[in-house]
Amino acid sequence: MKDIFRLENVIHQYSGRTVLDIQNFEVKEGEALALLGPNGSGKSTLLRILAFLEKPTKGRVYYDGKMVNEPSFAHRREVTLLLQNSPLLKRSVEENLCYGLKVRGKTSNMQEKVRTALEMVGLNPQKFAKRKWFELSGGEAQRVALASRLILKPRVLLLDEPTSSVDSESAKVMKEAILKAKNQWGSTLVIVSHDLAWIYQVTERALSLFNGKLINHVPENVLSGNWEPRNGSLFALKLSDGQIIMGAGNPMESSTALLDPKDVIICAEKPEEDSALNALEGTIVSMNLVRDTGQVLVKTLVGDKTISSLVTEKSMKNLHLHPGLKVFLHFKASALKWLQ
């Protein structure tokens, strides 16, 4: 895949204070990229630069292979940004959705496009198309804001905490609509969100921002399913091959558990029985070098789950690890962290 965005030696400052300092950054066309990091780390500023709403203080921004000196309408018509609370025009829902089409000269079949966009975000066109902006709940307004972006079939969709301030039903529908944009139209997604379970399931790659600097981020393992209570405070998740993952704590049955790859140990042999220690047999499917740390990210297929672990290059050589090798993964039940 070619780069849709590339940033080189970008520095951005507010009142002399550096908020971004990025040497190299690429986004591949059609990929879904997650941007993680604490509040104030520069994520929203980076999205505004990618949306051509701000020009960096220093550095070069390339879009579709060409350096952008001064962003033009031609750039902005292909890239759209959805904020946590995107304001609507003080008009009807239909007029909000049609505005972007009219600006871009795409005025054919507008009624059909409005209907399709509203249905994508779970709003009945007959009930909502004529409603005024002030007649919408917070969740409905954010769905309309997303629909006004999706109706454009954007080449790039930038999302800044798009579902953090809406109800759970709206969040679910919006996430499905965002994925549909990627799968149907090949839209490139760059997502900022604290919803880690969604981020890890949707995106192919994740980067973290800390104090304006980018580092590679190794996604945690997401273990979803029906967790059944066992002895004491242990809960069990049954995999497709009959193996069991044990987790300690007090989750709900439908909870999702996160498992840090650093807590997963690869061994050639199965350890002695221990109810608090998971020992799963699987097959290595891929191995990739993590450049920032020099470690190797190993992905192992266990039943219907792919579990990532981190090993040093020395351990990789000592264990003779390679794709196709059968191994055992060890991790403590207490290593699982629950997302309710």
TrEMBL record:
Pfam families: ABC_tran, TOBE
Keyword Nucleotide-binding found: yes
Record-linked PANTHER family: SPERMIDINE/PUTRESCINE IMPORT ATP-BINDING PROTEIN POTA (PTHR42781), SPERMIDINE_PUTRESCINE IMPORT ATP-BINDING PROTEIN POTA (PTHR42781:SF4)
Xref: InterPro entries: AAA+_ATPase, ABC_SmlMolc_Importer, ABC_transporter-like_ATP-bd, ABC_transpr_CbiO/EcfA_su, Mo/tungstate-bd_C_term_dom, Mop_domain, P-loop_NTPase, Transp-assoc_OB_typ1
GO biological process: molybdate ion transport; transmembrane transport
SMART domains given in the database record: AAA
GO molecular function list: ATP binding; ATP hydrolysis activity
GO cellular component terms attached to this protein's record: membrane
Mop domain ranges (all copies): 273-340
Entry superkingdom: Bacteria
Protein's name in the database: ABC transporter related protein
Keywords: ATP-binding, Molybdenum, Nucleotide-binding, Transport
